[in-house]
Amino acid sequence: MPRLMTKAEITEAFARWQAANPHPVTELEYATPFQLLVAVVLSAQATDKGVNLATRRLFPAAPTPEAMLSLGEAGISEAIKTIGLFRNKARNVAMLCHQILERHGGEVPRDRAALEALAGVGRKTANVVLNAIWHEPVMAVDTHIFRIANRMGLAPGKDVRAVEDALMRRIPKEYLSDAHHWLILHGRYVCTARSPKCGQCAVRDLCQSSDKTDNPAQSSAPRPQH
User: Fold this and answer.
1) Rounded distance, CA 40 to CA 37, Å?
2) So what's the pLDDT on residue 224?
3) Distance of CA 58 to the CA centre of its chain
4) pTM
5) Active-site positions?
């Protein structure tokens, strides 16, 4: 395991990411909180690019919970059939639309427990919505963030919740509201699972990975346990 990054190193890393990208946003396409919630539910085991291709078909036909229910599970399935697990996801989307209308007057709730009570919504999805819509300082740990938190010595942990808790403790408060986006982008485009682009890394001198190289390398970070 790499040594833990110091508080000063962590602060410097986030300062550099902020300087390079002052206002990071999710790569999922949406126009309303409801559409973001649906997009995040669809993104499980799928890429943002793949989800965007599906929602470009789905959202014009069904931009609201009412319209989505009118489309029906079969109509939702047809629109999103290019992404993995589309039938199960269509079932969850139809159910969460019913739940939002019945429990929350058609509005996406700004409450973690209420969000997690919706079909297809877990802690990570709730955190993405709370952060992206309301800029709450929460941390949604996906595979990218799990990997780099362990690889860099930023906030190692054996499972996603341990990494989430460690990140919440170790990231300076002034960076928390945007930290989720910076970390995902870093993991998606620079600190990739295979052949990380260390030569292009803005925080290479701060990273504590023993695998740092400009050549293809595999991380020794543990895989998340759900």
Assistant:
1) 5
2) 46
3) 21
4) 0.88
5) 124, 142
